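--- STAGE predict ---
source: upstream dedup step, 1 unique chain passed
mode: sequence only
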Amino acid sequence: MAKIDLYFATLSPYAYLAGTRAEAVAEKHGATITYKPVDIMALFARTGGTPPKDRHPNRIEYRAQDLVRKAKKLDMPFNIKPAHWPTNGAPAAYAVIAAQKAGGGDMGKLVHAICRSVWADEKDIAEDAVVRACLEEAGFDPSLADSGLLVGADTYAANLEEAVEAGVFGSPFYVLEDDQRFWGQDSIDDLDDHLSGKL
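--- STAGE serialize ---
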């Protein structure tokens, strides 16, 4: 059984656009996904990336056009300038960590609900009520938003170290046991082909 480590940021528009397609690929191949939310700004700083606000205007303008095109292609609602971005993505990340530990719900649905809250629903994922609603939507106990904050913080920091060690530099990033790495929502088809033995 293949194992996939999914490194992502709760504030990442590309993690939102991934939807639950990686989960469908994993199910198709009998693979498991371990969700590893990371602080994307800290990851950029460690791996040579530049925060979006600090990029050259050419890159900022292209990113805006490209995100809108990708959302249209995927038929997903998308707001290029969401009301609550940037915000503190850590509380939602801690909830993902707590939910994965607790079990009992749909992790892919939870991650998508959190990302959708930012990029389509105009909600602030730093707010407990928003995180609780996402947990409930995905079949988890909403009180997980209140529990395990220290463990969540420790795991969040550990995920960053693991990401750097694993060669990760963006979100979403899929890392397999054989060290094959797939960056971005547009590499999910390649992930599928690799698991099929085609790549």
